[in-house]
Amino acid sequence: xxxxxxxxxxxxxxxxxxxxxxxxxxxxxxxxxxxxxxxxxxxxxxxxxxxxxxxxxxxxxxxxxxxxxxxxxxxxxxxxxxxxxxxxxxxxxxxxxxxxxxxxxxxxxxxxxxxxxxxxxxxxxxxxxxxxxxxxxxxxxxxxxxxxxxxxxxxxxxxxxxxxxxxxxxxxxxxxxxxxxxxxxxxxxxxxxxxxxxxxxxxxxxxxxxxxxxxxxxxxxxxxxxxxxxxxxxxxxxxxxxxxxxxxxxxxxxxxxxxxxxxxxxxxxxxxxxxxxxxxxxxxxxxxxxxxxxxxxxxxxxxxxxxxxxxxxxxxxxxxxxxxxxxxxxxxxxxxxxxxxxxxxxxx
Length: 348
Prior knowledge:
single chain, 7-stranded mixed β-sheet, 11 helices, about 35% helix, about 20% strand
């Protein structure tokens, strides 16, 4: 970024997965959308708000396809590219698949940003794809008012090992692989209230690939997986509850990134956390006396968040060991799946 260029985040009205349409708005838009139709090889479509589409290619392979893009959550162009690419690939991993290649989606205000800055964004994304062992094999670019970057990501998985958000079983333990708080940290960054350790925590979390997901495909006891992104832990847990036709119980105190609790208690939050709460609040049961800022943390939009995994209780400890060995040091149990209507109950 040249000295005369504006901050990337100053060019966007939102940033990261906080840009997503709220669950309520998205539901209204899709309400009258016709179903994809009776395609025998479409294994996963739009029916349960899953992370990606899945198409059976043959008896041994299914294609996982997804796309994700957003506006800057940080000002460093290379870091922005890395975060956006990591986030896009996460949906492939959440289905148990291994990525095979990606296409870049690029919208940039070319009269405002230099070609060097735009190039650094793309280089950041390409570096993440290289770390995942895949090429960026093409893409599309447009001149847009706000900077936008992301990927189309494709992967492969055995048809019998596809992971979805709808297979949770009563008695399952819920494990979250990354701490929460990305939305709070990004809001603090935009307000110039984020210190160096907080920024390091933000970048460290959002650029860590969820490669663990590909290792969960076919693993005993793993029944459902989703990644926690723009709808927050509450929203994605609710999607899992609805997909599985069961209730989910969550702790009110999940692991948090460094500095998040103090910032949240001081009133730092994103507008998206409020929109999330308004969208699905009627399906959430909260304990009496839980402070609003703690509820907001549960609804905090996570850019490139962790995996939420429903696993049989007897396999939970082994799965935690696997996650921690993969570098997810803060992986933790955050709840359980129980019999009951498809709701989320937060426990004090």
